[in-house]
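Final report, results section. Input specification for complex C-07:
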Amino acid sequence: MPGGIDPIGTGAGRPVSSVGATTRAGAVLLADTSFSMSTRDTMGGLRRIDHLARVLAYLLSRVRLQALICFNSSPQVIALGGTKIKLPEPDGGTLLELPLVMAGELSPKPNRVIVLCDGEVADPLPSLRAARALKPIPIDAYFCGLDGNTAAIDFMRRLSEAGGEGGQTGKFKLGDHYQIGEALRLRIAGPRRG
Amino acid sequence: MAEPLSDQDLDRLIKLCGLLGSAHAGERAAAALKVSEFLTSRALTWSDVLVVQEPPLPPVSVTVGEREPERRYEAPGTVGWRMVAIEILQNYETVLRGDREFGFVTGLLQRGRPTLSDAQEKWLRDIASRAGLTW
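Structure output:
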């Protein structure tokens, strides 16, 4: 499609970069905002999405992302650049193919794609195909759901392997805001200088 | 982190670097030596002058909010919930179960709000499905 994709009405045919992404090549973060992110399974009673908001507040105060794309049944590019950012309420399923395609359609091409997901995606094969199409862009795929979900953890590993060289996989506890935020910051910006 | 160069120093450094492209090997060597001395005398490294120091980012607050109603209910080419509610009242009143549902649908239209709560949407979709309508 000329001028970028139109993933379920998010951009109505406009280039993806015009609906929230920045124009400098950098890292793109794909953040799961599916209904399962409304789960309250950490001490303190916060929902997973509220933890994600804290992680992102830490991260976005320290590094610049090329784009932040939230995904559930459809992807949504979140406008960056200001000091107040709003995530959508958790809703819908976990479809990862379109957000990956969106990341690949960005102009300029991102230099890294990072995926944060708390469960199994509903479209594993199309997602892996989209991940392979992103090569040589590396994909860091992090699982942040329940420890025992081996299928989801394994999928994240395969997702990372499907991307370009240098991708990483792992799992986080969403309640550890600093640990996740700092790990992501390091992936994006590298160690601090001086 | 090193102090930023003064305008005067920056001009001088640019001129010296310009000489690095001289056609004469002697001039190039002399310019390279001068640039090196320039950096040493100011306790600078190549990294200090070549790497662009970005200003620190401001603190960002991230909140979780409602979905955008316009896209959800008013997508181009679809019939909005208002049209469905009007259609029910005009042509499918028989699907309404009692005064409570009639009051619910008319109340939605009278209040004139652009969006529905999740519970309202669920209820209205249930009524609409009985009339074979959707949005």
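Chain B touches chain A through 17 residues (CB under 8 Å). The first helix of chain B runs from residue 7 to 19. This concludes the modelling results for the funded period.
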